[in-house]
Amino acid sequence: MTTPLHHPTASPRRKGRPLAAGALALGLVLPVVCAASAAPATASDGVVTSSSTTTPKRQAERLDRSPVAVSTDDGVYVGWRMLGDDPEAIGFHVYRDGKRLTDRPVRDSTNFVDPDGTASSTYRVSTVKGNGKGKGNERWATDEFRVWDGQTLDVPLDKPADGTTPDGKAYSYRANDASVGDVDGDGQYEIVLKWDPTNSQDNSKGGYTGNVYLDAYELDGTQLWRIDLGRNVRAGAHYTQFQVFDYDGDGRAEVMAKTADGTVDGAGTVIGDADADHRNASGYVLAGPEFLSVFDGETGAAVDTVDYTPARGTVTDWGDGYGNRVDRFLAGTAYLDGEHPSAIFSRGYYTRAVIAAYDFDGEHLTRRWVFDSDEAGDQYEGQGNHNLSVADVDGDARDEIVFGSMTIDDDGSALYNTGLGHGDALHVGDLDPSRPGLEVFAAQESMSASGNRGATFRDAATGEVLWSIPATRDTGRAAAGDIDPRYAGAEGWAVGGDAAWNSRVGELHAASGELIGSTIPAANFLTYWDGDLLAEIGDHEFDDGPRTGVPTISKWDYENGEQVELYRATGTLSNNDTKGNPALQADLFGDWREEIVTRTEDSTALRIATTVIPTEHRLRTLMSDPVYRLGVAWQNTAYNQPPHTSYFLGEGMTTPAAPALAYTTPARPGEKVGR
């Protein structure tokens, strides 16, 4: 047990109470009651197992329908969610200005185009059972909602003030990665945003950086809190990985992140020593205590703080002596017992790799297990990626952590190790529906470890390489998704040879391994945007001068081998240099298609873009799928990757089974229509 650092006595955490559901309830904020963090301590290890002998139901957030209405050239596009616990036969009616527009319930999609709608129209959606004609079986599913001015919604931001480093260099701030969670229990997501100073650094480079901030916002821009991680947490893509999830099952999401001396929580309480400055002359932080803190998602107040596992120890034990490899962090969330979410935080992947799992009961963080390559064996060194993924890969209803080239089982032991070494990109999902279980498609960096394989398509349960793409150097970009209906399953592609990161030359393969061609789409993000079941290409038009890009979504023209742009997020910029990812991509509004969240050019707002293309396909909200929801949680980790589903999503797919979910809050029966 470490010596406790100065902290006020912890006060009981206030439990959330649900607010009235409704599409326009954006900005309803409960009174803030702050809870101070307990003193940092070393978390105790505890073995937690599931008592269930059948497939368990996963603790889950209860969401509302999140409807959206957008004025288009063809009228008003209206979309809404099909929820995880909706019966398959559920139908919907759409109302405009109090008048029902649908003669029969909408059952083959969750969108509707009203040709006579206008910008001043008001809409409402109801649910129906049976044929929809009987009395008493139609209930309101939403409150009234209005039409957006366009297909985007701006969330105003409180941009931090500019600063100056100890060596006299000025810096400012830009909005960076974001995540979502229902922090106040009203069924609607709030946004948690990381602010990146303009002098943020890759671990391989020295230099002072500005402080990193985490903010929480309602969708109308109401700021709930700001956490200042302080001078002793360096800024850069590999330093701060934050998780937003309801870990204790009270219906409100928490926020977890690595903290240090001088971190100030959302209630103004300082963690550790407020005056400590552990930065060295090169701007690195290689001394001083490190913590893991859990914050109340509604107030930002620290609830518990423990020592970060693993401690940095001797810097040279992680692969170098100047501070690069010691501070490579990853984070995620996993249902390790099949029922309750646990937080995953790690350190190292080039050499030594240590992964720790934590549970949170509403008051205390408890360490569940630790995997350490120093103890497991040196064969597990150097197998981590710049990202991770979480999924039940072995079919036991409990999640595993796909940690790059090795996979850690739900109990913290090694499930398998491919020995393929470090890589930059990772995709996990049901990529080949003709095979049982899930698959992994990953880029590889070490040619000696991978046997000159730049990307591999593997069985997620065993690590068996099913096919691969040859290479002679680090392959920095690879992606997998169904973009060509002529071939069954998802296609996989990677930038080839000595080509640049944004090259359209590489290898495109079918899920079977068949080579389709050497012209590839951008190997960056995949986005579900238009009306079919194929994935679109999420990318950015990169300007090497300011090293920023304008986000785009394109269709892959598989017959002509080229991208056809569908949407350009004009006036906004992508994040993280050449990686070019949105601040967040997730199914946030309307039907199952995804929204992209990008920062405006001046970072005064986050802009959420939604599709207005009708679709004839109906799926439950992707956020009810366990692999996809956890993918949204880890998406901000290091080199961001797009979320995938646990089922095959693409041309010729079968209807996926309803997810087994245990909602943390009771259902709110809608008022009967006509009352």
Write structural notes for this entry.
By secondary structure, this protein is mostly beta strands. The protein has a domain at 68-141: Immunoglobulins (Immunoglobulin-like, Sandwich). Helices cover 3% and strands 34% of the residues. The chain is built from 3 helices and 47 strands. Strands 4, 5, 7, 8 and 9 form a 5-stranded antiparallel beta sheet that branches. Strands 10, 43, 44, 45 and 46 form a 5-stranded antiparallel beta sheet that branches. Strands 13-14-15-16 form a 4-stranded antiparallel beta sheet, with no helix packed on it. A hairpin with a 4-residue loop joins strand 25 (354-360) and strand 26. It is globular and about 70 Å long. The chain starts with 57 loop residues before the first strand and ends in a 12-residue tail after the last strand. Residues 1-39 and 44-52 have low confidence and may be disordered.
Concise overview:
The chain is mainly beta. It has three helices and 47 strands.
Task: Describe the secondary structure blueprint for this structure.
Layout lengths: L57 E3 L7 E5 L2 E5 L11 E6 L2 E2 L10 E4 L7 E7 L9 E3 L4 E2 L5 E5 L6 E2 L5 E2 L1 E9 L8 E8 L15 E5 L5 E6 L14 E3 L8 E7 L2 E2 L5 E2 L18 E7 L5 E6 L21 E6 L7 E6 L6 E7 L4 E8 H4 L12 E3 L8 E4 L2 E3 L5 E4 L8 E4 L9 E5 L3 H4 L2 E7 L5 E6 L7 E4 L9 E5 L9 E5 L5 E5 L5 E3 L8 E8 L4 E10 L4 E7 L3 E2 L10 E3 L8 E6 L4 E5 L16 H9 L26 E3 L12
Parallel strand pairs: 1-47
Antiparallel strand pairs: 2-3, 3-6, 4-5, 4-7, 7-8, 7-9, 10-46, 11-12, 13-14, 14-15, 15-16, 17-18, 18-21, 19-20, 21-22, 23-24, 24-25, 25-26, 27-28, 28-29, 29-30, 31-32, 32-33, 33-34, 35-36, 36-37, 37-38, 39-40, 40-41, 41-42, 43-45, 44-45, 45-46
